[in-house]
Amino acid sequence: RTDILEAANSSLRATSSPGAHFTGEQRVTLAEAARTGEVSGELQSFAHRVYADPGRITAEDVAEVDDHGHVPVVETIGVVARLAAVDRFHQVVGLGIQPLPDPIDGPATNDHRTDLKKRAAHVPMPPGPIPVALDLVPSEGDAARAMFGPFYMTEEEMVDPHFGRTPGLNTPQLETVASRISLHNRCFY
């Protein structure tokens, strides 16, 4: 479907934009480190682990980089998790891993929420389903939701027991695929 390809390309472009804590250049550097494993520093090493083996990320792994602050950790997770999804999608449909876009100039936005607290997850987040996991950094939460609908279901579609794509899968089929992938990836959410 074209909406999936558009969401993947949009997410890849967002990698190069300034974020809450990182400049566009720093975000592209994180993405490169995630892909290649050529790292210098804790956050780049963490980014590579999130990209290459997310099922092995533990609360202790997050705590090790948490001295950088929750905002850079959440932004790193957001950038890298979306990048991993886009890269895997491109590989599966035969397009190969696409080059990262050139960084967009500008300072970090410092846009993050201060009203959230840790719950069962490793970082502060509001109560709710999986799509809110990155909402400490609103731009990352929005970017994740922009991919969620085309790649899976929107939050509204999740509560509709009769949802289905034409052509495509219905809710029980989507949930079966998602559950199998989560099990295979040892998802800790």
Can you offer a commentary on this structure?
By secondary structure, the protein is an all-alpha fold. The protein has helices at 2-14, 24-36, 42-52, 59-65, 70-92, 138-151, 155-158, 171-184; strands at 117-118, 124-125. A two-stranded antiparallel sheet has the order 1-2. α2 (24-36) crosses α3. The longest helix is centred in the middle third of the chain and has 23 residues, at 70-92.
In round numbers, the mean pLDDT is: 90
Identify the overall geometry: globular
Could you tell me how far the N terminus lies from the C terminus, measured between alpha carbons in angstroms?
A: 28 Å
Q: Could you give a short account of the major beta sheet?
A: 2 strands, antiparallel
Strand order of the largest sheet: 1-2
Can you write the helix and strand succession as a string?
HHHHHEEHHH
What are the segments in which pLDDT stays under 50 over at least 5 consecutive residues?
none
Q: What's the tally of helices?
A: 8
